[in-house]
Amino acid sequence: MTQGEDKLRGDNWLQRVFYFYVDGFKAMTLGRTLWAIIAIKVVIFFVIVRFIFFPNYLAGKADTDEQKADYVRHELVGEQQETRIESMSRNADTVSDTITDN
User: Fold this and answer.
1) Which among 32, 50, 67, 94 could disulfide-bond with 62, CB atoms 3.0 to 4.6 Å apart, if both were Cys?
2) Same domain, 1 and 48
């Protein structure tokens, strides 16, 4: 690349880096095919992983967004509150047993 062509590519170092890679990809023959294969594999991988590991679990639990929000709220907070209440009632039973024993 001559000095004149370098000026056309820009004075900014970011532009020069960008055009360095653009020119490199334009000159590729086998590499372009390999990058296409890699891109296809990545897309397929993420589509399969999404359906296997992230199923739409709430679809069978509720119909509307409000019902889904209520379900999630109950699962996240409701069980903790129930466990806390059960723990408090056990502690109260223990304290009352201790008081009656004395």
Assistant:
1) 67
2) yes
Domain of 25 in residue numbering reads as 1-55
Question: 44: helix, coil or strand?
Answer: helix
H or E element, residue 43:
helix 30-53
7, 21: one domain: yes
Name 28's Cβ contacts closer than 8 Å, sequence gap at least 6.
Answer: 35
DSSP track, 69-90? HHHHHIIIIIHHHHHHHHHHHH
Contact 16, 9 (CB under 8 A): yes
Per the CB < 8 A criterion, the answer to whether 68 and 58 are in contact is yes
Give me the sign of the Cα torsion angle 63, 66, 68, 71. Answer: negative
